[in-house]
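[agent] plan:
  1. take the single chain provided in the ticket
  2. run structure prediction with default settings
  3. attach structure tokens to the ticket
  4. add a short note for the reviewer (M.T.)
[agent] executing step 1
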Amino acid sequence: MHLQRKSSWLLALLTLVAVISVFYLLDSPKQSKEEIILSVDADQKAAIQTVTKEVSSSSPLFEETRLQVNNERNQLRQKLTQKITSDEYFVEDQNTASMEIDTLNKEESTEAILEMQIKSLGFPDALVRIEGENISVTVVANKLSKSRANEIIYLVKKECEDANVQVKFGANNY
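[agent] step 2 finished; step 3 output follows
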């Protein structure tokens, strides 16, 4: 009975991820980007690290990145689920696998929530990637400003207090 409950939650989360992915695929504007990378130290002070220019469309890149990360996570989730349901592993290993699945689910939902919150700040598109304590945020923006980066950093820090946040802005070209 407990395994069925976990399976139901897993199916619900995967469905949510699929719906969000389809939404992003249908809502992808064309753009080229000129980005400025900002990072935050322990005191939350932003400092310009590098400036790069690319002639490419970032929304298709966002979608490609989302799909790639989603595929990698689904493969990992399948391996962990097999580990949980297999009789070949100790209970401690199964518990560890279950906690890893919970962490994956939490990261996915946090990324989706942060992307929606960043879009609500007026950005046309955002891509959030969580890897441990490092959070990378890439947004499409018309202007490159420290104050906008600080808004995003503050928003992310509210959600994940101990995170190392890196913000990238891409110029919008409709």
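[agent] step 4 note for reviewer: Strands lie at 33-40, 46-54, 126-131, 134-141, 164-171.
[agent] ticket updated
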